[in-house]
Each structure stands twice: as C-alpha cells, then as structure tokens.
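ok, trying the design again with the full structure, not the truncated one.
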C-alpha cells in the first residue's frame, strides 16, 4: 500500500509526564488505553524540565533508566526522550509542533490523566494543542471532572464518543476514556519511601530495585 489518508495511518499516541518515578498508574493506564485505542505501540514521553512543578528529584538519566526497566513488563510501551534532549521548559505545545512537522497527516493522540486535564487551561498556549493533536483523558481515582469555563466549552465542542473518531482526522477531538482506575501516584510512592515503608506493588520490581540501589527519594 502506498500513500494513504489519515484514516489508514495508525495514530501516534503519547503519555507525557515527569515519571519521577514511573509507576503502575502510568503503565497500566497507558497499556489499557493502547488496547482500547487498538494501537500497536504507545509512547511514554518524559519531560526534561516540567513547566508546572519543581525540578524532578531523580535526574533525567535516572528517570530514563527507570522507564527502560519498566518496559520489560510493558513491551508495547515505548519511550520518546525528545523533551529530555531539549533545553528550557518542556512545553507540550513545542513537542506536538515538532511531531506534527514530522507527521503532517498522522493523527496524534495526547493522553493525560483527569487531574492534568482539569489544569489544561494553564498549559502554555493550551488552545493551540487542539490544532496539533487529539486529547485522550484517562480516568484517575480521586480526580473528578472539573474544568474551568473556557476549557469546559472546548471539551463540550470537541467531545467524541469513541476511538474510531480519532483516526478520521489528525487533531482536534477530545475523548474521555474510561480505564480501570489505578490508585497510585509518584507523590504517594515518594512519601512511602521517605517514611521507611516499601512501595512494593505500586511499580515494577526492577524499578523498585533501581530506586533502592541508587538510594533515590530517601530525603524530603
Ligand atoms: P505526582 O504524584 O508527582 O503528581 P504523578 O503520579 O501524577 O506524579 P506524572 O508523571 O506527573 O505522575 O503523571 C504523568 C501523566 O500520567 C499525567 O497526565 C497524569 O495525570 C497521568 N497519571 C499518573 N498517574 C496516573 C494514574 N494513577 N491514573 C491515571 N493517570 C495517571
């Protein structure tokens, strides 16, 4: 087959985050979304310098190593390290612009948890995101839908019901995707480690072994 319309090209899907550290909340939700969206692969996209929070506790190299270790259990999740190679704050709009230049017609899917989606209006040039990608919002425990009015308007305008709607065009739709809730956060993992408890079961064993060996997240 040659050429092809957007409908024939598998969407390129990404879950951005700090991954400090990567955990089962990221991994199981991304894997569920990958299946629900009938994608062969999905990319985890670590931020180099997250714009909305302080510097990550682990270094870029350490966060990338933990992501690589997590892949043993989730081989269909790949890593896109482009934001870690860029200087300055890792604005998603810049990343999507770069991907759009490389893939002019391909549907781009930006996955975000409900907590992050509720804050989307605070992202750098947030309205431009809709020109560049579809947004897929993942259920997250304790994060209820709570959009400020401008964002609520965009969500209402752009809402689609199913994955098929996302293959039909390169960008612009919003899908609320119900995934089985996974009650894990990086904050909770770090809190457990600081208080001398093990976060076993909240992240893959090789990632936990790496954290222990490298004495990560021990101090406040
Ligand atoms: P922190 O506790 O420091 O806020 P985090 O656990 O939210 O970290 P991030 O790397 O900041 O992890 O999250 C990256 C993306 O993954 C965000 O869009 C976030 O909403 C989503 N995400 C993280 N954990 C979950 C989860 N348990 N369920 C659904 N989405 C999640």
């Amino acid at each position: 087959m040659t050429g092809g319309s957007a409908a024939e090209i598998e969407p390129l899907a990404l879950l951005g985050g700090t991954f400090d550290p990567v955990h089962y909340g990221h991994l199981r939700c991304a894997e569920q979304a990958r299946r629900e969206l009938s994608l062969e692969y999905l990319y985890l996209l670590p931020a180099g310098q997250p714009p909305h929070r302080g510097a990550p506790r682990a270094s870029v190299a350490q966060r990338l190593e933990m992501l690589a270790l997590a892949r043993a259990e989730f081989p269909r999740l790949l890593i896109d390290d482009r934001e870690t190679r860029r200087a300055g704050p890792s604005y998603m709009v810049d990343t999507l612009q770069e991907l759009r230049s490389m893939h002019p017609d391909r549907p781009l899917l930006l996955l975000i948890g409900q907590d992050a989606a509720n804050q989307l209006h605070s992202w750098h040039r947030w309205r431009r995101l809709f020109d560049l990608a579809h947004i897929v919002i993942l259920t997250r425990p304790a994060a209820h839908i709570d959009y400020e009015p401008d964002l609520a308007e965009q969500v209402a305008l752009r809402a689609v019901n199913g994955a098929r709607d996302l293959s039909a065009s390169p960008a612009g739709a919003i899908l609320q995707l119900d995934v089985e809730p996974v009650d894990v956060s990086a904050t909770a993992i770090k809190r457990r480690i600081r208080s001398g408890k093990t976060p076993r079961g909240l992240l893959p064993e090789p990632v936990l072994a790496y954290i222990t060996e490298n004495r990560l997240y021990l101090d406040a």
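Keeping the full-length input from now on. The pocket of adenosine-5'-triphosphate is lined by residues 15, 17-19, 25-26, 29, 112-113, 115-116, 138, 140, 182, 184-187 (CB under 6 Å).
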